[in-house]
Design brief:
elongated, 3 domains, 3 helices, 133 residues, two-stranded antiparallel sheet, 4 strands
Amino acid sequence: MKYCYQCGRMTPGKPLFCNHCGRSFDVKLCPRLHPNPRIAEVCSQCGSRELSTPQPAISKVWLVVQFFIRLIIVLLIVYVVLAGFLEFLTSKETQNALLALGFLAIALFWLWQMVPNWLRKMVRWTLQKGRRS
């Protein structure tokens, strides 16, 4: 999705032109859609003089402000997710459930070690046969 600085509307996908005002995004395009810099008067690949009108250029200051706004949003999202995760891990119910899962895993491993070797091989063979088909 791209934002047009000429008409102030969004165009979905990865468009070459704004759906509303028809301006190209960041470059001048010839009829064969060869990209050219904003200052070009002639297409560098086919020589066409019919170039699209690009949307207005964005100032470098605005790009820096935009970057920092996005960075702050990402940091806030990470903070909220981490705070929620830590709150989840520090609750008594979660700690008890994780402890119970650990004991269950140890018990299942111990039981698997007690199973005769021929039965373990048969289980592994059955599981591998299921993956192949």
